[in-house]
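Supplementary Data S3. Sequence and structure tokens for construct A.
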Amino acid sequence: MDKIKNNDSYGLKRLESKNAKNAIIQKLSQDFNLTPIIAEAFYQQVSVYFSEHSNISLSSGEVSYEAVCSTEPAGKHIRLTRKVTCRLKLMDINSDFDALANFGLAGMRRLRIERLTRQAYDQGALLTYEDIALLLTTSPATVKRDVFFLRKDGKFIMTRGTKLDMGPGLSHKSIILDLYFKGYSFTDIELKTNHSETSVKRYLADFIQVATLYKQNFSQQQIRLIAQKSDRLVREYIQLYDIYYKLDNKRLLELISPEPADVNQAKKKSVPSSGRGGKNNE
């Protein structure tokens, strides 16, 4: 066998070069005036893109949809933003039909808005009103009214505008953390805000980073640069810290201290306060 391979009397190497991959590489090299090595590198990269955006298996009721990556900043042209291919459950027979029977078409549409926005966000993407309208074959104005209704009902609908905090008011992250410090369980927060437990824990990790830097006397500007968070979010997290530290909030103390909360409580009783929570005058 080794002798046959070494001699290559069957011309295996030449035959291997006649596959689709090499045909595409040859066309890339010819059409774009590239060296074979560069053309092959392009082919490999395009193969990765194809796998990420096209080679997706779908279950019954699911659709594949391209949405803007959740980390993309505001103000960037939509054509230049990074996209994420999402698997979205457009139709869930049991829950959708139940909503239709009890609340009509509007109720079913709102249930789908909750589901689609949550699924997109869990996959690292954000839907806009226009995206939702296209998926649900309705108008952006109708989606906007539905989202307003859902938010009035206490639900958080994670759209691109909401995530980037384009509108007025307290950011959704701070509201969710406020619920956590008030004693709500992850399950309660998930039901109340339409956010997964994974998302809530990610917000808590960001808060811990900001709070830790704040305790170490870093300025808001320094915290913003180190944590890579907006001025507004850093300011809100610091406000949350100050409010709940003064209240000796058990959950906050457990988050920010490497020691048990009861040890911190004992230390606070024996050491005079030096101003804002956790800071000293060294």
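Construct B, processed identically:
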Amino acid sequence: MKHKTWLLTVLSVAAFTGGCDKPATTSEQLDKVKEKTAEVAQDMKDYTYAQKAEFTAKMQGQLAEIDKDLDLLAAKIEKSSDAIKAEAQPKLQALRDQRVQLNKQLDEVKNATESTWDSVKATSKKAYNELKDGFNQARQWVSDKIAP
């Protein structure tokens, strides 16, 4: 379940930032994300404690993708007007703060014991969902404020 959420976010970001000849509308982007999410959901599984290393590696990869996507979003904002930049900076900082929290959560995942595994996974999922939701809101805000 956790990987489904992670992958959904990564796919959402990829659909948003993916290059194409003509800019996709938000509706088209959401349709692509839903389609890819349905495909990925079939392949997702809940990681057990025995799969902690696999889960940790997956999480690290997703954090790297989030970092790239945050950089792309920041670059897009940087090309906008001063007013948009000023309004966007607190939103970007909040996302970066959430990213730091998620990185701390990754440390907890690495140090989880079998008895704490389920709790750590749940907390990781919550931290990731908060970051994903914040990123989606920021992305939508940028899309609304800055013409494609």
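Residues 2-22, 36-44 have pLDDT under 50 and may be disordered. The helical segments are 2-17, 26-43, 52-78, 82-110, 117-145.
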